[in-house]
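Figure caption, in words: inputs first, then the predicted bound structure.
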Amino acid sequence: MHSVAELRLRARARLPRVVFDFIDGGAGDEAGLRRNESAFGELCLLPRVLRPCRERDLSTELLGQRYAMPFGVTPMGLCNLAWPGTDRALAWAAARAQIPYALSTMASTSIEEIARLAPEHAWFQIYLGGDPATADQLLARAEAAGIRTLVLTVDANFTARRLRDRANGFALPLRKSPRLLADLLSHPHWSWATLRAGAPNFENFRTAPGRRPSIQISAMLQSLAQAHIDWDILERMRARWKHTLIVKGVLHPEDAQRIAALGADGIVVSNHGGRQLASVPASIEALPAVREAVGPLFPLLLDSGVRSGDDIAKALAAGANFVLLGRTFLYGTGALGAERGPAVTLEILRGELDTAMAQLGASRIADLRPDLFFQPLQARAVRQGSIR
Ligand SMILES: Cc1cc2nc3c(=O)[nH]c(=O)nc-3n(C[C@H](O)[C@H](O)[C@H](O)COP(=O)(O)O)c2cc1C
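Bound structure (flavin mononucleotide present):
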């Protein structure tokens, strides 16, 4: 496997359709999902020559911590659907590679276990609202487990219209039907692995060890994910969480400016991977205006549509300080299982980024700057008046 595109194809073949579509799909007609990827594809980088960079240093600093590479794993619920053990395997691989792993509120592994596996590299993502006491308990657990970076997601206040999930009748537990049975039988490797490991669950919402999260808990999770959080809540959260606070899911420059002014430590420019609303700009398209609004020094992360080391280089050159990837990592475990998937995916991304930097004449992450972008011929010709 040499690219994320190959991993995706292999994952599509190995996972039941209901599962692959949950991971791969987006909101509505999926225009936002496609745009995330095509916007990266349309950007070209212009290599600089005669700049020897025999050694490339991929490490970078973000919010007071040094990471070996300028990217990490973005929070994703129910990762273990991609393959049993995905949460744990990704956290462990991230810690080994010295990059961050963000555990979702909706994860299928407990906060404590992930914090043990990745003591310096685990972040925790929270959906706020619904029942404040539950959110508070989660924060207290994250803090007690030693987690020091909290990601507050603010762009998932409503249940999205994901048409593939609707067509497949996606629900948890998976709804029994002849169609599901046929889907499972035609993907025996996944089905057998999942049968042996047990279906993934919302591990952080068990009322007691060994007890399955109940229906009421699912309903409560729904309300958490549909919380109407507002500026007052963000302000309270800033006062409550004494450590690093990153706000995720921002596209509008005015929102970014206000969030920064409220004291957040960083922002993830993200359209949730095109999973919430179809008619959104790609995150990479929204980034320049957000950068302009918050100034050159404010820490900005970016996710959505990043599928290669070249994309990572583009996001950094466009003004992001750090990049997060979601589906890319689930394609990896879906394709190769939890044991091999994370390491292979990381090596693909590292190798591509390293090669891109070598070609661009960039020996350090700080060398990835906006002057490396090529103006598409068409735009230049229009500006010069030769095309009208
Ligand atoms: C299967 C899946 C589950 C997700 N669950 C969460 C979640 O629990 N919390 C969250 O903030 N974002 C969640 N996201 C959104 C990601 O954090 C991220 O914004 C998105 O995946 C980035 O786009 P990409 O997949 O194209 O890299 C999820 C994404 C996927 C694909």
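The mean pLDDT is 92.
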